[in-house]
Amino acid sequence: MNTRGKTFKYYDNVDTDVIIPARYLNTPDAKELALHCMEDIDTEFVKNVKSGDVMVAGWNFGCGSSREHAPLVIKTCGVGCVIAKSFARIFYRNAINIGLPILECEAAADEIAANDEVEVDFDTGIITDITTGKSYRAQPFPSFIQNIIKSGGLLKSLKEGEANG
Amino acid sequence: MGMTMTQKILAAHAGLDKVEAGQLISAKLDIVLGNDITTPVAVNEFKKIGFEKIFDKDRVAIVLDHFVPNKDIKAAEQSKTCREFACAHCVSHFYDVGKMGIEHALLPEQGVVTAGDCIIGADSHTCTYGALGAFSTGVGSTDMAAGMATGTAWFKVPSAIKFNLTGKLPCNCSGKDVILTIIGIIGVDGALYKSMEFVGDGVKNLSMDDRLCICNMAIEAGAKNGIFPVDDITIKYLEGRSEREPVIFAADDDAEYEKTIDVDLAKIVPTVACPHLPENTRPASELHHVKIDQVVIGSCTNGRMEDMEAAYNILKDKKVVDGIRVIIIPGTMQILRECVERGWYTAFIDAGAVVSTPTCGPCLGGYMGILAEGEKCVATTNRNFVGRMGHVKSEVYLASPHTAAASALTGYITEYKEV
């Protein structure tokens, strides 16, 4: 499994209020919400993002509210992976639960520039900046979490567990 | 090596004698909580995956609080989804308009959560209940759906930072000033993935409302949970309230902490978090030049009785300065009723404030006090991110009820000084 696309670069402490402002949370509809993804800090994001693109950010990505709408809108916009130095814990959990690939890698987050072409291999955790030719290795997920991702999210893995007795 | 208080609660709920930091466990849940924004997403997931029953009708709490009374048609649809789900599954702790309150003010007040519990809530401020000596943490809607179906959740056992509290707060400070000061020291990710365990001689000098406020904002330091030991104040608070028997856990003497931070409560000063992060703290006394347009006193952080009392003591027989809108939001119907009975509601109106029924409303920029471009608000809420309360060029300054009320009388950020 991998993703390849252009990068959008953000700073430290990107919070869930800027990922999807609460004023739009009167609907659970991901497609409708995705039209407003990042708009308070980057009005161009929704216009320019393409399927497979990669978000790159600093420390504590996704801090703030527990709204699962945040990883959901990023995924719905087509983003194939978020690379950050660290993730806020509820965002981390939510991203895994809904199947948005995320990777922690400090060097990649520092060095990859906006608009670089990047390829991410989720099986190996290798991030390749095709524009610069540099490669990075992200922290692999614990196997427990890899199993949730392989099943296609938490609920599907629970259902599989039920079926297996 | 012994266990922290959080680790002991998690071990007990996982059926294990011992757990250690970093270990992945499956724990039994005492309460699974959701609100009118997060529950609809959980309900969709619950149905989509084909779950038919919730694990226990008495262990699921659904509170409509963010956008109610419904702010618009879409919000009304979300409330309806919650209502229908609660009705179909006979959810005993379903709180609709008239019964509802802001979830984290309501559940402790109603005794739905208690000491020793293991709680998840699809709301980041679920960490509030650590004040009662419970393990309580925020999750997303999918975790809520899974929790409702199975009564369990997976956790990575957290390590902990110990906050050793000593002394007694000055009379113009409250729990809000303590937690803002701490976030100012350790930063918005200073406790990322960790527990914040508050201990020490100073704990006995903090009221339950102070403790609830402090644990409420543990998430603003990135923490998994905040927790206080159970003492006489906790026991007194829980008496006649808890619907289940409280269970008292205490950290082992040889529990391992990543670090210890000493906090002398006597040295706390009225503190304000400036835009656009809760860690941008400054003493209120250095911000007298900041001219404000609005004051909000309420939220899951500061909508409790002592917060209303602080506002009352400062605003009674005074007038809000011209040009300032003051919005006071008691956290629950019981608190609202108490404000009415004590004559505080009238005092607020006479001072020139408006009083709302309980709602999260303005805290998250939902409704009931949205800011225009360039406007500044002193709020007792918990986040001051870009666009949090309205326009992306508006600003939120987080403060205690004392500071917020004192600022309402001057039009500038002002700390309360007893006269």
Characterization of this structure:
The complex is a heterodimer of chains A (165) and B (419). Chain A contains eight helices and seven strands. Chain A has one domain: Aconitase, domain 4. In chain A, strands 4-3-2-1-5-6-7 form a seven-stranded mixed β-sheet. By secondary structure, chain A is α/β, with parallel strands linked by helices. The mean pLDDT of chain A is 93. Chain A has helices spanning 16-19, 30-34, 45-48, 69-76, 89-98, 106-111, 143-151, 154-163; strands at 2-9, 54-57, 81-84, 102-104, 117-121, 126-129, 134-137. In chain A, β3, α5 (89-98) and β4 form a beta-alpha-beta unit. Chain B is of the alpha/beta class and 419 residues long. Chain B folds into two domains: 5-264, 2-Layer Sandwich (Aconitase, domain 3); 272-410, Aconitase, domain 3 (2-Layer Sandwich). Helices cover 30% and strands 18% of the residues of chain B. In chain B, the strands form five sheets. Chain B has a five-stranded parallel β-sheet with strand order 4-3-2-5-6, covered by helices on one side. A five-stranded parallel β-sheet of chain B has the order 16-15-14-17-18. In chain B, α2 (38-48) packs across α5 (141-150). In chain B, 62% of the residues are buried. The mean pLDDT of chain B is 97. The interface between A and B is large, with 40 and 54 residues.
Nutshell version of this structure?
The complex is a heterodimer of chains A (165) and B (419). Chain A is an alpha/beta fold and 165 residues long.
